[in-house]
Design goal:
602 residues; alpha/beta; Ferritin; Rossmann fold; 3 domains; three-stranded antiparallel sheet; 16 strands; 50% helix
Length: 602
């Protein structure tokens, strides 16, 4: 079994080492590298579709008829001319100038960078959606570096696991670049677990979807995955629209969609500024809205925003002197509601402060609550973003709620429910996402979906329990140590890798069992919804009114009792102070020694 996570990490490490060895910044490196991944995907898909076409290709004069661009269009795949195919670029000679190559415009090709630029132009010629999107800056790369990048992405493992895995690798690279370019103003990546949560709650099936702050297109990709996993075709069932003011991000979005085989209409630049433009004229026409807009934007021109419409509850607070809106959060919230048709659903990320902000915001929130269309509110803890440590909230609207929950809102406080990835990043695992989704299913009266989740747990665990898996894990660790210690030197690395894989698989199974236990301990095997202190509560509009129309989950779910961990607080604090005093003493001694050594050097 091929470890996709390991493959992602190895490819990134190899590519990033090259970046470090070049004079290019992360910003300069990001787009060209992602475009090479896109080209690798396009080639993998091209070869797969070509094989399908050739199976039933007619013959003429004893020869199979050559494939044509129209054959690929019929199968929603890009046709790639020979000079744009990945293996062609990988196998070009070291001395490009001696090969006598010509570009599509008839110019001599004298470097590998020029050959890749030509390939990108040829791909754009095959796709209206990609026109002007792919980078053609590869002459800024040294040929040796570019040749090594092509070699890295030509990894045959990608073909063994199927071309679609490149979509995962693309997203992985996007997330890594998001960290690398954190100082840049254009934050273009919403972590996958937040996007998946939005998609899971909205459960898109078919219709028009808009993301008016689409960044790199994660909302479209996860929606496509969700629809396809339901046995439908995303390109047939969904129509994707996006607005993205930053053109660089819009290019990333179009490549991201293409890598995942999705079609969409994305508008970028000034006309895509959602504060002043409904670029696709979609107010009141959308089945689904998903977005992670920029938080707390100020200095939005009130008159221009008002003229652009989509404000069913009026403008937020305006500075009378500057005629500017000081915080645009409730502009976004109003837009998301205004875009929905009579049965539409919206899910979006928003600054935590917006759930109970005062003045005009509070008035808009009251009107919004009174529509009965606020569906679910979720509090998210710190460190879910690559570039921000602040908490946020997820908001969900449903203009076609069931009659029995029409005057109710489900509040979920998930600030203490997550998995730590590293010191600066948290996420929800797949099982955690499904557990949170299960609470929403019970709120909506969909017990059968809850019971299906329990059945999926039982299938994955195959009768194993938390205690039995913990025991097995200890045995694996002991056995691994023994096998590695006793292995000949030449076999140590191989055996260590094999044993680590077994241990990791067992740890994943243990996590699955723990998540099942977490869910069933609260709602039972059959799924009987109940408010859980510190986690979830269904509140009526009357209860929300009593709390001055706050939509902060913590105000409703309360605080769970803390389990006694058996540690005496005062004793532990004394121990910590003693440890700190000892460390300070040792530090002072060390500083004295450094000072003496420095004096002797003078």
């Amino acid at each position: 079994m091929i470890n996709i996570r390991k493959l992602e990490a190895e490819l990134w490490e190899s590519a990033d080492l090259l970046r470090q060895g070049s004079k290019l910044t992360s910003n300069q490196y990001c787009m060209p590298v992602l475009a090479l991944l896109f080209l690798r995907y396009a080639y993998s898909r091209y070869k797969m579709v070509e094989a399908e076409i050739l199976k039933s290709r007619p013959m003429r004069g004893g020869r199979i008829m050559p494939v044509e661009p129209s054959d690929f269009t019929a199968k929603s795949a890009l046709y790639l001319p020979k000079e744009a195919q990945f293996d062609y670029l990988v196998n070009l000679p070291d001395n490009i100038a001696s090969a006598g190559l010509k570009s599509k415009d008839g110019h001599d090709i004298n470097s590998l960078g020029e050959a890749v630029n030509n390939a990108m132009q040829l791909v754009e010629d095959q796709s209206e959606q990609l026109t002007g999107v792919l980078p053609k800056t590869y002459t800024s790369f040294a040929d040796d570096l570019l040749r090594e990048l092509l070699r890295i992405f030509n990894n045959k493992t990608i073909d063994e696991v199927g071309g679609d895995v490149i979509g995962r690798i693309y997203e992985y690279f996007l997330s890594k670049f998001a960290k690398a370019v954190a100082s840049d103003d254009g934050v273009f990546f919403t972590p996958k677990s937040l996007v998946k949560m939005l998609v899971n709650i909205l459960e898109p099936k078919q219709g028009v979807m808009l993301d008016p702050a689409c960044g790199s297109g994660g909302m479209f990709v996860q929606t496509g995955d969700f629809v396809n996993a339901s046995g439908m075709n995303a390109n047939t069932n969904m129509t994707f629209y996006g607005q993205e003011k930053v053109e660089y991000n819009a290019q990333l979005c179009l490549m991201n969609m293409a890598v995942h085989g999705l079609n969409g209409k994305i508008i970028s630049g000034d006309e895509a500024n959602s504060f002043y433009h409904d670029a696709h004229n979609l107010a009141g026409k959308c089945d689904y809205i998903m977005a992670n807009p920029p938080f707390n934007v100020d200095k939005v021109k009130a008159e221009s925003a008002s003229a652009a419409g989509r404000l069913p509850f009026g403008l937020p607070g305006v500075n009378a002197k500057t005629k500017e809106i000081g915080n645009a959060n409730y502009l976004w919230i109003s837009y998301f509601y205004a875009y929905l048709n009579e049965h539409g659903r919206a899910g979006f990320v928003m600054a935590s402060s917006a759930t109970d902000s005062a003045n005009k915001d509070r008035d808009i929130r009251e009107k919004l609550v009174r529509t009965g269309d606020v569906d679910v509110m979720v509090s998210v803890g710190n460190n879910f973003f690559y570039t921000l440590s602040l908490p946020c909230s997820l908001w969900f609207f449903d203009r076609n709620k069931n009659a029995d929950i029409r005057d109710k809102v489900l509040f979920i406080d998930a600030r203490n429910y997550f998995t730590v990835v590293d010191r600066t990043l948290n996420e929800w695992t797949e099982w955690q996402l499904r557990n949170l989704q299960a609470i929403v299913h019970l709120y909506r009266g969909e017990k059968e979906k809850y019971q299906q989740l329990v059945a999926d747990y039982d299938k994955a665990l195959n009768g194993q329990t938390v205690s039995s898996i913990q025991e097995a894990l200890q045995q694996h660790k002991a056995q691994a140590k023994q096998l590695i210690d006793n292995a000949p030197r030449k076999d140590k690395k191989r055996i260590e890798a094999e044993q680590n894989a077994i241990i990791e698989e067992t740890q994943d199974l243990l996590e699955t069992a723990l998540q099942r236990e977490w869910l069933v301990s609260k709602f039972g095997e059959k799924g009987n919804y109940q408010d859980i202190l510190g986690l979830c509560k269904i509140a009526t509009i009357q209860e929300i009114e009593q709390k001055n129309y706050s939509l902060t989950p913590g105000a409703y779910v309360g605080v769970a009792e803390q389990e006694d961990d058996g540690v005496n607080f005062h004793e532990r604090m004394n121990e910590i102070h003693a440890e700190l005093a000892q460390l300070n003493k040792e530090a002072n001694i060390l500083m004295d020694e450094i000072q003496k050594a420095w004096e002797e050097l003078k």
